[in-house]
Amino acid sequence: MIGRITQQGMQQATLRHLQSNLSRMSELQQQASSGKAITKPSDDPAGTVDAMRIRGDQRATAQHARNAADAVGWLSTVDTALLSSTSLLRQARDLTVQGASSGSLSQTARDALAAELDATAEALRAQANATYLGRSVFAGTSNAGEAFTMTETVIDAGTPDERTVPVYTFTGAGTGGVERRIADNTTVRVDSDGATVFGNGDESVFALLGNIAADLRNGVDVGGRLSEIDTRMDAMLGEVAAMGTRYKQVLEAQEAISAREVTLQSQLTSVEDVDLAETIVQLKMQEVAYQAALSATQRTLQPSLLDFLR
């Protein structure tokens, strides 16, 4: 049995098709103007999930990039301080060698060497108290303003030998260090243990230079102190090598982060963005189809009685 196709049914079907064409054309126009294939989750649920995952990876990568940049700042500060400290300690060693030349120096010359050593010790302490963004780079996780403080104490009080001597104290944290996460499973220490590099208390390099200066003033042979200076020099050079390794690790991480940022952006583009040329072609085809539908509808639908009455 063949069903009867009424004029009203033809009109309703035609209207539905025209509205569908308009909706598709509006969707293509929106994609062409925004450049995005996904404007709401219902456009592509699976693609939306992928885009959200990629954007999460982008945020994590951006944080790693900020961490790596901060790590470079810390490591650069530590490296500069260590190199300056090494140079100062070499100067102190040269002064000690001069002071060890017994019989060739007057007491005035020895006093002058002692004064230079005192100045070198203070310059070393300034390097040991280097800071980055207000944080001491040799004090670990401590929030102390200085990694090494200096106070003066009086010894042999009330005797002819009464004198004031400096006392150096390490104020840094005893354990742990400042770390930065530069990848999902990679962290790097960006500070340096001041107690290991410069020593602590009476064993510090500052106290050592002060003792050498005191020996020079008292006419004591300082030749035996050279091995102590060499021990502190070895500690500094070892830390310089360690910092160089960590610095290289962070620089390599920055290169990897930059490459990952490009990769993630490419992945997001492939999921979210439209092929503009293809979209424009589809839009033109849809416009042609819509115009053709209007023309066909005009010829197909018969005029109603009201049309005749006009």
Automatic annotation (TrEMBL):
Subcellular localization, as worded in the UniProt entry: Bacterial flagellum
A GO cellular-component term linked to this record: bacterial-type flagellum hook
Domain annotation Flagellin C-terminal: ranges: 227-309
Signal peptide feature range: none
UniProt feature, compositional bias: Polar residues: 24-36
InterPro entries named in the record: Flagell_FlgL, Flagellin, Flagellin_C, Flagellin_N
Coiled-coil regions listed: none
GO MF terms held by the record: structural molecule activity
Protein name stated in the entry: Flagellar hook-associated protein 3
Organism expressing this protein natively: Georgenia subflava
